[in-house]
Amino acid sequence: MRIVFLVALTFCALKSFSQNGVLKGKVLSDSNGASISGASIMISQLGKVEFSDQNGDFIFRDIPAGIYEIEFSADGYATKQITDQQIISNEISELVVSLLKNETKLEEVVITRTRAATESVKSLLTLQKNSISVSDGISAETIRRTPDKNTSDVLRRISGASVQDNRFVIVRGLNDRYNAAYLNGSPLPSSEPDRKAFSFDIFPSNMLDNLIITKTATPDMPGEFAGGIIQVNTKSIPDKNFSSLSLGGGYNTVTTGNKQLYYEGGKTDWLGIDDGTRALPSNFPDYRTFLNLDYLQRAELAKNFRSDWRLKEKNFAPNFSFQYSIGRTFEIGEKTLGLIGAVTYNRSNNFNETVRRNFEEQAVGEPTALYSDYFDENYVEQVLGGALLNASLKFNSNNTISFKNLLSINSDDRVVSRNGIPFEASASTNPLLLSSTVRWFTSNKIFTSQIYGEHFFPKDKIKIGWNTSYSSVQRDIPNLRRNIYTRFRDYIDPENPNELDITPTANIANGNAGPDYGGGLFFSENNERIYSGRFDISQKFSTSETGDQELKFGLSGLYRSKDFYARQLSYNQLGGVGDLVFDQNLLYLPDEEIFNQANMGIIAPGVGGFTLYDGTKYFDAYDANSKLYAAYMMMDNSYKFLHIIYGARVENFNQQLDTQLTETEVLKINETKFDFLPSVNLIIALNKKQNLRFSYSKTVNRPEFRELAPFAFYDFTTQFITSGNPTLSRSLIENTDFRYEFYPGRGQLLSFSLFYKDFKSPIEIKAGVNNKEISYQNAKAAYNYGGEIEFRALLGSVFNQPGSKFLNNLTLFSNLAIIRSEVDVSNIAASTDFEKSRPMQGQSPYVFNGGLLYVDKDYGWSASLNANRVGNRIAIVGNVEAEPTLWEKARTFIDLQLTKSFLKNKVEVRFNGQNLLAQDLIFYHNRNLNQKEVTGVSRSINQFFTGDDQNLNGYDKNADDQIWLTRFGRTFSLAVTYSF
Q1: Overall average pLDDT of the 523-535 stretch
Q2: What does DSSP assign to residue 190?
Q3: Which of 23, 459, 506, 672 gives a 20 to 30 Å CA spacing to 660?
Q4: pLDDT for 414
Q5: Residue by residue, what is the 3-state secondary structure of 829-876?
Q6: Is the separation of the CB atoms in 504 and 488 below 8 Å?
C-alpha cells in the first residue's frame, strides 16, 4: 500500500506538452568572463527577440525544430552572429556566447560570424577561467552518471575532498569543523549533536543541480571556513515542461535475503519518523520532579512505563528507491512563472560485522595485551526521503524573485548484537563472556525555506541582490535501549559445577546507571534554527575600452538558536528498602521477558522487581544562541590580462550558552569577538587558455555549541563518551593559494594548485585521561599545506584522433591531492615528540579520485567507472598518558554505472555497482614494533604519498593493534526512469 501511495502522486502531472524545442544560454564579456545584462538576442528567421537578464542568462521557449541564425548585440560590444544553431524537438539546446568590446568609441557595428558549436566551447572556457575564486564542483549531469545515492557520496568525487564516517566532508585535509555548508546560498545548521558538522547523507543526490566547493575566500563570502565552503544547489526553475518517474531496487551481497534482527517500531518508521511509540509518556515527570519521588512512587512509575524489548527475526528485503518530479512554466503577460516540485524516497538495508578490541600497555617496547574482544552484528534499516518545491517569478529581464523550499528526512533504525569478552581477554583462564543488544532509532529532519531577489538597473549598471531564509534541523533519538548479560565461559569449580556460573545474568544496577549496566533507556532531542538575511549591491563602470571595474558591498545578519535535551533512565533492582528483597531470579530472564510489566514494582509481599532510576545530569540539557553581523566591501578590477578582486569583511560574533552544572551552580557563556578579514585574489591570463591564480585571505573558526557544552554522550558502537569543553576559544587562519589552469577546449581541463594555511589555536578532538573519553581542546598552533592536480581529457584529443567517434566519446578524469599538516600540541601534551607535533586530526596525506566516462548519444549508451582512495588518517587524537592515537586505514572504493536510453530518451535504465572491492574498514593503534626498513621504489612512493619514506604511521597487521574492523558488502541496483 505504501508503494501504491507513492506512485499515486504521479497522477497529478499535467499533460500539456509542446513538441517544439528550447534555446537557453548566457552572454559573457570576452575580456573577463563577466556576464552582460541587457544584451539583445534575436532569432533572425523568426524575428523573436529576448534580452539577457541580470546574470547574462536568456531563454527562448517553444521554438520549432530547425537550423537558425542568432544575432547578439549589446552597448559597447561588437555585434556577433551565430550560425547553424540546431533546435531539436522536445529538447533543450544551450548556447554560451562571448562578445568583444569595441576598441573605439565610435558608434560602429561590427558583425562577427561563428558556428554555434565552436562558440559555445569557446565561451564556456571564458566562463570557467574567469571565476573569481579557486573552486571545484560537479554538475547535475555528472552526478547522474555516478551511482551515488546521497550528497556525501557525490562530494567524494571533488578534487581534494574526502568523506569520513560516510557522512562528514574533509576538504584539503581539514576535518568537517573547518568547512561550512550552504544550501542555495543560505547557511545550514549543524545536523550532529556531538560535532560541528553537517551530515551530507541527508540530501538525496537526485535533487541536486550542482555541488561547488569554494576553496579561497572573497569578501562577499562567509569568513568562517578554512578547508572550503560546500555549496549545495538544488534543482531550479525548469527550462521546459517536464514530468519524470523513477523506480529502482537494489541488492547487497551480505544483506539482501539474509537474517535480520529487528524490533517492533512505530507505524510511520517507513517515513523515517517515530509516531510516538518510542516517546516518553506525556505525563512522565521531568528530571527535577523525579528526584523528589520516593521509592514506591518510582516503582509505580515503572509499572506504568511500557517498552518492548523483544527482538524478532526476518530476512532483509531488497533496497527500494522512488522519485517523481514535475516542472512547469507559465507566461503571465510579460511575466514568467516557473515551478518545480519533486518527491523522493529511498529505503536501504545494511548488515555489517565489526570486531572491536581494546589493548593494555605492557613494558616499554613490548607488545600490548588483548584486554577486551567483541564481535558486533549490525542490522540497519535506512530511510532517505525528501520533498522540494521551488518557484520563481521573472517580472522582466531585470527583476526576478524566487522561493525555494526543501524538506528532507533521514532515519537510521538499527539493532546491534554484541558478544565477547569484556576484560582480561588474553589473561584469564575462565573469562567472563558478555552478550548485549541495542535498539537504536535516529531521525533527522531538515527544512529550509528561502526567498531571494535579483534586480538590475541598466542605466546605472547597478545590481541588487537580497536573501532571507529560515532553516531548521531536528535530530531525535527516542528510547535508545540497551541490555547486557554476562556469564563465565566455564564452571568456576569444575569439580562442583554450578549451572548459574554459565547462565546469562542481566547486569542490572541497584541505585545507578551507566554504559556498564543493562536496562538503559536514552532519549534526546536536538533542535536548531537559523534565521538569516543578506543584502548586496554592486555597480559596474568602465575606465577604458579594455578594462572593467565593479564596486560591491553588502550587509548580512544571522541568528542561530539551539536547544538540546537528553534523558538517561535505567531499570534498577528494587530491594534493600525497608523489608523489600529483590527477586534475583528475574536477572536470568531473556530480553523478551525481563522487563515485562509483571516484573515491575512490588511483585509479591516483601519481594521487589524492577524500578526506574534517573541517571540524568543537570548539564544534559542546554540552551544556546549566536548572533553574527557582517559587512564587506569589495573591488573587482580587470584590465587586459589582469583580474584582481580585493577587499575586506568584518564580522561581529556573539555566542551564548546556558546550562545547569549542579543544583546551585550555573554555567553561562557570553562571548563577543570582532574580526577583520581581508582577502585578495589575482588572476593573470597568460593567454586565452591559461591562467595563473594567487590568493590570500584571513578566516576564522569558532567553537560549536556542542563543543562548549559539558554534556557527555555515550556511543554504544564505538564505546566512546564525548564531552564538551567550556574553555574553548576561536581559531584564526591565514590562507595562501596558487593555481595554474589550462583549458584546451571541448570541456577539458588541466590544473595544478598549491596551498598553505597557518592556524592559531586550532580545535582538535582529543582522547581524555580516562579510557574511552574524548573531548575538544585548543592546540597551540598548526599549519596545513599541499598540492592538487586535476585533469579532464577526451581521449580523442590525447591520442590526436579527432575523427575517432569512440575516443571522442570517452573522457578520462582524475584528481590527486597531496596534503601535509603539523599541529603543535606542546601546550597540552608533555610526552613523546610525536604527540608534541603530529598531523591534524582527520587529515589524509593523499586523496585520489579517477575514472572513465563513455557517452554515446546516438545509441543512448553511457558507462562510468569511478575510483576513490583516501590515505591513513587520525580519527581520534590520543593521550599519551592513557590512550594511543586512533588511526583509520586507507581504503579504495570502485563504483560502476551502465545506462541505456530507449524510446527517444523517454526511458532510461541504469545499473549501478557500488563499493565493488568491499574492503574492510580498519581502525588501529600504531605500534611500530620491529619495523623493517623500507628501501627502493617503495621508499620513494612512501615519501611522495605520505611524507615519510618509512610510512611509520601506516598499518602493519603483524605489529599494530587492530581496534575495529568492519566488513561491508557490495551493492548492486537497477533503476528505470520514465520522462513524459
Answers
A1: 93
A2: P
A3: 672
A4: 95
A5: CCCCHHHHEECCCCCCCEEEEEEEEEEECCCCEEEEEEEEEECCEEEE
A6: no
